[in-house]
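Morning!

This is the sequence you dropped in the shared folder:
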Amino acid sequence: MTGPLAGLRILEMAGLGPAPFCGMMLADHGAEVIRVEREGGWSLPGDPMSRSRRTVTIDLKQADGIALVRDIAKSCDGLIEGYRPGVMERLGLGPDVLLADNPGLVYGRMTGWGQSGPLAQAAGHDINYIALSGTLHTIGREDRPSPPVNYVGDFGGGGMMLAFGMVSALLAVRAGGPGQVIDCAMTDGSALLASLTWGLYAAGLWEDRTGVNRIDGGAPYYDTYATADGKWIAVGAIEPQFYALLCEKVGIDAGGQDDQAAWAGRKEQLAALFAARPRDEWCALLEGSDACFAPVLSLADAPGHPHNEARGTFIEMDGVTQPAPAPRYSATATGAPRPPRADADVLLAELGYEAERIAALRGAKVIG
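The structure's back. Tokens below.
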């Protein structure tokens, strides 16, 4: 593996959503990630979030399977899991056990509500976690909040936050600190992602209503508009000089940018203007200028945009188009992602298991 995290070994307990995203982030940047699959577990063919892993399928209902996970964890710098609080403890793989085996282990726990609190044991999904943090209230149109897929809770406030926490704690261990447990909750993480909004709200610059503010679709200069061919464009001309340029290029006056009483009328004017011409004409006029403009590209179209092609923003692996690793490094470049590979025999041999013992584990269906 290449990248700034090369040399780190992470154990990932297979799950859905944010924990695999964290595992992908760590693997993308050079860590060796060993993914423990559960027999009969759900998987998506060509899933980007499973790339660059070594995998082993283990029956966690058998004592030998639990012992095997403990042996793997002893060889690792970190572990990530995304089960409800208490599940790993009931399996005999809780942090008290694994940190006793390996005092330098960084044990990352990913949940929606957190390891503690009145809701800790309740079921939920991204939409619920970002609703409770107040973040969903800031996303959508004036008539209702709108779920932003599962980008804000699962991935931004969840998997990405856990990846940051793992790297931070791993650095602390490298500096001589002990292993520790990371309690990463999507409610906490999604609240943190809204830090700017909380600051604007405290300063009296954000109305506590959905879809009426400068950057939530309330302002005419920060919104999406339909074009004549049924496609969409996005404008984000917040600064006065950028707004003036946008207005100049589309042929309207730039007066009263922040006159909220005039926003509805200006939005209608822009909507009619943009609807009169196809998207490609607006791209030819505005794209690449300081008018803060971009076409709203579909998943099918985004990889083929010249800017994305030039930067290699998307890659193809096993016939599946997917985002490339990000960000980029000048001195420790990341390697190309690889498909996950089943690696039980090699992995167990590295741990000192003899061939006969591996065969016996497979015969007993402890490993798949």
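Headline: The domain at 222-300 is CATH 3.30.1540.10 (formyl-coa transferase, domain 3).

More detail when I'm at my desk.
O.
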